[in-house]
């Protein structure tokens, strides 16, 4: 059973909360038979990605955008890598390396690192008469 969060709890965790580092996660990607590292996005970036996903004109680009910016290992922003793969746009590297379903899954994992879609659960309590 969970406990209620109090002001005293928050104050006791003040320094840890203020100095909280971005979380990372290692994912295994089957199509390349290797692991990648993703990093938690900032709040502003996550909001931008969610807005892109809701915009009919840009929704198909949202996952690619997230993966391009939040995969930190390997560095998909490396100019030489993009050149060697013949990328016209920098984000082309994402669709060259990963399968479409993998791009979507990686993007979802990135947003989950930022707390979207996980980490919060509804508490059901029975009301007794």
From TrEMBL:
A Pfam family reported for this protein in Swiss-Prot or TrEMBL: Phage_TAC_5
Official protein name in the record: Phage XkdN-like tail assembly chaperone protein, TAC
InterPro entries listed in its UniProt record: XkdN-like, XkdN-like_sf
């Amino acid at each position: 059973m969970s406990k209620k969060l109090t002001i005293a709890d928050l104050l006791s965790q003040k320094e840890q909360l203020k100095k909280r580092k971005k979380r990372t996660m290692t994912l295994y990607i089957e199509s390349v038979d290797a692991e990648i590292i993703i990093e938690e996005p900032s709040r502003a970036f996550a909001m931008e990605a969610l807005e892109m996903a809701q915009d009919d004109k840009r929704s198909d680009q949202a996952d690619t955008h997230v993966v391009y910016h939040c995969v930190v290992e390997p560095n998909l922003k490396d100019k030489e890598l993009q050149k060697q793969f013949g990328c016209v746009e920098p984000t082309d590297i994402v669709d060259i390396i990963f399968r479409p379903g993998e791009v979507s899954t990686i993007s979802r994992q990135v947003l989950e690192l930022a707390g979207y879609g996980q980490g919060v659960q509804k508490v059901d309590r029975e009301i007794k008469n």
